[in-house]
Amino acid sequence: HRRMGIRSSDCPQKMPPAALVLSLAGALLLAACTRQPKGTFVPPPPTVSSPEVNPWREAAARVEEDRNEPSGRRAQVQVPPELKHYNDRRRFLAVQVAEWREHEFKLPHDYAELAAMISRNQLVEVAPLGTDYILYGVGENAGDEPFAHYDSATGENITLHSGPEGLKEEYDRVSLLSKEAGDEVARLEKELKQVGKRERERRKALLAQVTQKRDAATVLEKKQRLLASFYKDPARGKLIFDESRQLRELAADFAGKAYDLEAPAGRRQFKVRLLSFLRPEALDVLLDLARAYKEKFGRPLPVTSLVRPEQYQRLLSETNSNATRIAAPPHSTGFAFDIYYRYMSAAEQDYLMAEIARRKVAGQLEALRETRDHFHVFVFADGRLPSETLIAQTIGRLGLSRAGMQSDAEPGLKDAKAARAGKTGRESKKAKVAGKTRKGKPVAKAEGR
Questions:
Q1: For helices 111-119 and 264-274, what crossing angle results, to 10°?
Q2: Tens of pLDDT, residues 111-152
Q3: Longest Cα pair distance anywhere in the chain, in angstroms?
Q4: What is the DSSP letter of 260?
Q5: What is the pTM of this model?
Q6: Cα–Cα nearest to 364, from 349, 381, 387, 339
Q7: What is the dihedral of CA 384, 386, 388, 389, to 10 degrees?
Q8: Contact 376/367 with Cβ under 8 angstroms?
Q9: The 133-135 sheet, strands edge to edge
Q10: Helix 280-297, helix 346-361: angle, nearest 10
């Protein structure tokens, strides 16, 4: 104290025991009040701003809260006929496609076309957390890879470039890889010819290598031809450059927020936000259902899927064999959304199904209680069912099997129990590694499931 020029009388005196206890109690109370919500099975969307992270987690915790009774598919519910498959299961999907055919809606093939629709105000944004709902896993499977043009004719993607130089560089790179792969196949085939027939194990190993390398070479040759069709055709090349420019312009100022498309995290945030849109008519129904559910049960309505470009729909089908792969997937129209009932009690599900069924009877929508924890809702643009003639024609044109569409939900959410066990979804391995449990169930951290 003397060295610092401070007198002992200026220092605080020893705190009495009673005051010390009160002080500690106050500190603990303050810590309890500011403690963050527990981790949720689904992490907050990357589009949630920092001040909204905790409110989002609190809402998600309400969704996941244990009802102390059977929930989801384990609950004994009364599914109304309006939410069951028709006798001819093909009709459910055909009704939705017929609606698209009747109105000739523009469908986005990729993120660039989706961005164009958003710029034209054909879709409206759905915030990550609303008064009565929560976006619970929307865009969960969106990756952070560079944006690409989706070629619907081949089902392949072409990375977007801002100019001819980038496209030429990619074409040259793939051409070189294709040549190297072809040379490797030729080398292995030559080596195989020199192996005696009695050397069975070596022949077997070489045959496996030849098959693997030949498949890889075929993929590269296909990619090279597709790139050539854009690189050597100025009109098609311009499409790549225009889509790149359109995405960059929107990302630079997306309703006041900018996204760095050169950074993986920025790309994924931008994709998730693009997937958080709906047609105005569909949003009205979603909000109406959410309001009714929240008033009845005091919980936000969990919504797992909104609009999806064909490119993203194709991605889902790679990990979910039930995801629709027809030319006009319902979610691509922007009129479909999915509600997650995995944690809902029988009473919650029955009430929500009755509300959806009532609107279906009124001609507002098509709906189905899917076997993978989702209610699929498709809203009609003008509030009426397409003509029966058009529906029948659509069934014939689609050539659908009678198995129908069981579920085209986000793979990461199609089975929450399996996902938490590390068996489904893009983050399944992380969920499995998490290891810790709550009431015997694996718990996924909020930062990554």
A1: 60
A2: 999 999 999 999 999 999 999 999 999 999 999 999 999 998
A3: 99
A4: -
A5: 0.79
A6: 381
A7: 150
A8: yes
A9: 133-135, 301-305, 336-340, 374-379, 365-369
A10: 140
